[in-house]
Amino acid sequence: LLDWGGQINPLASAIKNCWFYTTVSPGYLDELKYASGLNWLFENENGKALGVLNGIDTQRWDPKKDKLLTYKQEKNDLDSFKSNNKKALCEAYGLDDKLPLFVYIGRLMPEKGIEPIIHAIGSYLNRDNKANFIILGTGLVPLEDMAMNINEMYQNNVKAILAFDEKLAHNLYAGADFLLMPSFIEPCGLNQMYALRYGTVPIVSNIGGLKDSVIGLSESQDNGNGIKLYTIDLYTIWMAIEQAIALYEKPKEMNKVRQRASSVDMSWKKSAEIYLSIYEKVTNI
Q1: Integer Cα distance of 49 and 23 in angstroms
Q2: DSSP state at residue 48
Q3: In whole angstroms, what is the distance from residue 89 CA to residue 233 CA?
Q4: Tens of pLDDT along the chain (285 residues)?
């Protein structure tokens, strides 16, 4: 029971011996069957596994009560909430609030797709296209340097803030039009959930929890609340930016997508009910 490939492998042993195991999303559970190094084991033990999507703290992340925001949402007025916070952000960073605002929030690490994001931003703005981008986060020094370089090259349209700033993060979710999150690896992800909650349209890769929590506009015109990438490189991110701007230029359609995004239930309620049913099953309650 300890052995896996002639070595002691605690994870393999745990999967063999446990009564039940979960992952933080159904999509990630599927990925473990072919991209974990324990492929056969996860496939063989699949009968005692379940992917349960994480939730978020909807009291802390509440656009109507969030104390970190410059402007809270009044009743169900999503339009004013978004526009007021966007204007405040753009004024603070010297950006034109009439342009679409894309943000990246998170670690500057290769698995988060930040390198192709920066290349796509540079290529897009180099052709005199108009959009604004804010990058917030810290990480590997070479990627931090890339972020600062693109900031210097396009100071009127790009702001890179190399910091962990929770207040600013909340205000970015509130004021941005789009969140860039083309991760190469994302077992669940929370940023896309915060974005949805605050009416910011997520641009995500079709993996892990991103696949489970965001409905791409290409999947459903009636229910779509985000944009999905099926490969991750400069070209596909560029095309996603183009798609996002085309949506932004149709205010009625943009508002519908925002409304759908903000109405998604990302609380722990459903997930907690699933966990409770698992505990009851394994303890024979």
Answers
A1: 8
A2: G
A3: 28
A4: 888 989 999 999 999 999 999 999 999 999 999 888 899 999 999 999 999 999 999 999 999 999 999 999 999 999 999 999 999 999 999 999 999 999 999 999 999 999 999 999 999 999 999 999 999 999 999 999 999 999 999 999 999 999 999 999 999 999 999 999 999 999 999 999 999 999 999 999 999 999 999 999 999 888 999 999 999 999 999 999 999 999 999 999 999 999 999 999 999 999 999 999 999 999 986
Q: Are residues 130 and 156 in contact, defined by beta-carbon separation less than 8 angstroms?
A: no
Planar angle of CA 224, 181, 217, nearest 5 degrees = 15
How many CB atoms are closer than 10 A to CB 55? 18
Q: Which residue spans within 83-238 are E strands per DSSP?
A: 101-105, 132-136, 158-161, 178-181, 201-205, 227-229
Do the beta carbons of residue 261 and residue 195 sit within 8 Å? Answer: yes
The one-letter amino acid code at 131 reads A
Do the Cβ atoms of 186 and 210 come closer than 8 Å? Answer: yes
Which runs of E-coded beta strand occur in the chain? 3-4, 7-8, 21-23, 49-51, 101-105, 132-136, 158-161, 178-181, 201-205, 227-229
Farthest-apart Cα atoms in the chain, separation: 64
